[in-house]
Amino acid sequence: MAESRKIAGIVLAAGKGTRMKSDTPKALMPLLGLPLTAHVLRAMETAGIEPIVVVIGHRAEEVRAALGERYRYALQAEQLGTGHACLQALPELPPEVQTVVVAPGDSPLITHEAFQAMLTLHQNTQADATLATAVLEDPTGYGRILRDGHGRVVGIVEEKDASPEQKAIREVCTSFYCFEVSILREMLPRLSNQNAQGEYYLTDVIGLIAQAGGKVATWQSPDPALLMGVNNRWELAQAAQALRMRILKHLALEGVTIVDPATTYIEPTVEVGHDTVIEPNTHLKGATRIGSRCTLGPDLVLQDTQVGDECHLFRSHIVGAQIESGVSVGPFAHIRPGTVLKQGVRVGDFVEIKNTQVGEGTKVLHLTYLGDAIVGQECNIGAGTITCNYDGQRKHQTVIGNRVFVGSHATLIAPVTIHDDAYIAAASPITDDVPSEALAIARCRQTNREGWVRRKRESINAQGKEGATNE
Q1: Which domain range does residue 29 map to?
Q2: Among 10, 284, 294, 344, which is least packed, fewest CB within 10 Å?
Q3: What pLDDT digit, counting tens, does each position of 361-396 carry?
Q4: Which residue numbers are catalytic?
Q5: Burial group, residue 300, by CB count within 10 angstroms (0-12, 13-18, 19+)
Q6: 0.85 exceeded by the pTM?
Q7: Do 216 and 272 fall into the same domain?
Q8: Cβ atoms of residues 422 and 440 within 8 Å
Q9: Over the stretch 219-258, which tens digit does the pLDDT of each residue have?
Q10: How many domains does the chain have?
Q11: 197 lies in some domain
């Protein structure tokens, strides 16, 4: 759609965000795992609008680095208003662009459907400008839409410049626009900063177009919350809540069971397959992909992790892992980056696995640390097993073959290889390779000293009596 209509986007993200009371630029305030402005950019991209010019100012290089090089950037070195910001963006628009969509970078609830609806109306009415409006019970803080006796838009007045009668108007400007680029190029240089804030308002372009006899259309959002701006931490929290509920509803309608929406946190970058059940206190973050028919939670954190079908993961923390189908993890497991759990693996309580591949059907059920290892198929890793992978300077690898039995409390001191079908006796520190089908025992032979306890007790008692006599 964007290519055939020659449509581009401008996102205004130059502000400091003083009311956030943060060292972080407003555009980068975190919201469900993404920078605040990234939510607007994602919606615009999904609507087919490209290229997108992001206007940056406060800590511009930091904002640019975080948002990435897939966008064009325009610098507003001095924040002189939204009209001035758009003026900086115009040189970055390709010459063939005819229509531009302008959006604020602090309205994360906007959807691609809303952008598409605005563009459709703009095209169908052949307007010079189309703006998104909302009717609010409390319009405080917003610019008011001014109409003539025929209902035509004649301008927008910012609240600080509005009269008492104008402040009573409930239809407001939400800072989302479609403009014909030729009109915008003509009107922006004509803006004045003779107003209460001493800024060049983009809203004043609407009045200039109307005065010149141009056509201004309005698209009224069916849900004003879609256009909500975020200016402080509480509004950020409210936006997060609304966005989170939108994500959960979408997943539920796609066949995912959400047991308790109030305690379920899923970021917009996550994908979940049908018939998966998400229990309370589950957090799914980043580039996480979940298969079908899984049970996740309760009390689970997954981040940047790929999960196959029919897995059961609960009360565990899993980051940067690949988990194949039919795997069980939990409770209280810590699965760290670089871990691959093959089909049918079982990981139990108080197990930590890092940068390790665990083969099909292997069981790691209790109190174990596996780091920088390769573990084969159908192994049993006993309780208390540790791979000693770090010598104080370098990491070393442990290789365990197929069908290996590792007894409880074994210590595997890397680099070491245990070949197929070997057996490691419990409590053995293993420093040398173990051949296939061999039994490795590395511990002192047990000695039982008959009567030792009785003799020790008698000795202690005798020493006590001698001390009492000397007193």
Answers
A1: 2-227
A2: 344
A3: 999 999 999 999 999 999 999 999 999 999 999 999
A4: 366
A5: buried
A6: yes
A7: no
A8: yes
A9: 998 888 898 899 999 999 999 999 999 999 999 999 999 9
A10: 2
A11: yes
